[in-house]
Design a protein that fits this description.
about 300 residues; alpha/beta; Rossmann fold; seven-stranded parallel beta sheet; five-stranded parallel beta sheet; 9 helices; binds NADPH dihydro-nicotinamide-adenine-dinucleotide phosphate; binds oxalic acid
Length: about 300
């Protein structure tokens, strides 16, 4: 049973230590592998182009929360994503920051600051604000709890429409009423065939005039040209994007300098190395025991 990690040196060093502490062997890099037939487990962000070089591969683990960067797995190879409280908490913090910044008009004040312009605008109360969260999974639920705790009226949108305490939940057949009441729309959806390009002109047209967009899902869910038109028409007031389309955002892209948009370079979360390694060990042990795998991806739905 061989476990191969393909990653950058800082992460590899921590994983090597965590695996050594657990008494589990680990190959850090393909160059350490003498016999590819020994490899049963592979952890990486993106795998080698030809996974067939490991004929006995059973399982691939994405070192992040998402798996949209992964190719279709070969027959019989299972795919897991990383479950890590640190990822969930980091994204929650970014989303809460972004929601407050947009709701409290920070793009306008940052823009005024460039010319030293002291001008106050209306100050809204959180409890008068309606927040709509697309994706009520691990991260969406954490965000809902925090924003609800600040007083926002929180609604959630998910594929299954599973109930979440304290949140008005809308299923996929109720996207329109959900959008109607989203003064701040937060996207925390995985990228799948169903969510690609979902944040577009048609969707924006269903939101309250002047609403805001917080996007930390995946760049390919957003039509950036439609976002610009929605901002120009006043349909949307502002947007804060941690993920963009494309990524990285080109140096001369309009969104960098548009005062209504704040961009961060896909940094809402970065997997803590130790938590990632511990998750991989949990997957390894569950697999050996024939137990349910933490973070197992349902490849038929894509997340
Ligand atoms: P989960 O798998 O726990 O939750 C996904 C949620 O999305 C579920 O509620 C699911 O519905 C819902 N969903 C999936 N497809 C659809 C659809 N077509 N329509 C409506 N709802 C849908 O994921 P996480 O919360 O852990 O992470 C969510 C995403 O956040 C990741 O996939 C990744 O893209 C992004 N992310 C971004 C990071 C960043 O740094 N910017 C860092 C980490 C994650 P249901 O509950 O019914 O299954
Ligand atoms: C992730 C990410 O998927 O960083 O973990 O986006």
């Amino acid at each position: 049973m061989g476990f191969l990690l393909q990653t950058f040196p800082e992460r590899a060093a921590v994983w090597a230590q965590v695996f050594a502490e657990a008494g589990e062997p680990l190959y850090c890099g393909a160059d350490q592998v003498i016999d590819p037939a020994d490899i049963r487990y592979l952890a990486c962000w993106t795998p080698p182009a030809d996974l067939g070089i490991y004929p006995n591969l059973e399982l691939v683990i994405s070192v992040g929360a998402g798996v949209d960067q992964m190719p279709t797995m070969p027959e019989g190879v299972r795919l897991c994503r990383t479950l890590s409280p640190g990822i969930d908490e980091m994204v929650r913090d970014w989303v809460v920051m972004a929601t407050l910044m947009l709701y409290r008009d920070m793009p306008t004040y940052l823009s005024q600051a460039t010319s030293g312009h002291w001008k106050a605008h209306d100050v809204p109360l959180a409890r008068n604000g309606r927040v709509g969260i697309m994706g009520m999974g691990r991260i969406g639920r954490l965000v809902a709890k925090t924003l609800g705790g600040l007083g926002f009226n929180v609604a959630g949108f998910s594929r299954s429409g599973t109930a979440v305490e304290g949140v008005r939940i809308f299923g996929v057949d109720a996207l329109e009423p959900f959008l109607h009441e989203s003064d701040v729309l937060i996207c925390l959806l995985p990228l799948t065939d169903e969510t690609r390009g979902l944040l577009n002109a048609e969707l924006f047209s269903k939101m309250p005039k002047g609403a805001h967009l917080v996007h930390a899902g995946r760049g390919a869910q957003l039509d950036m040209a439609d976002l610009r038109s929605a901002l120009d028409s006043g349909r949307l007031g502002s947007a804060m994007l941690d993920v963009t389309n494309p990524e990285p955002l080109p140096e001369d892209h309009w969104a960098w300098t548009d005062p209504r948009v704040i961009v961060s370079p896909h940094v809402a979360a970065s997997t803590d190395h130790r938590e990632g390694a511990e998750h991989a060990l949990a997957v390894l042990r569950s697999s050996r025991a024939g137990a349910a795998l933490p973070g197992l991806v349902d490849t038929t739905v894509g997340y």
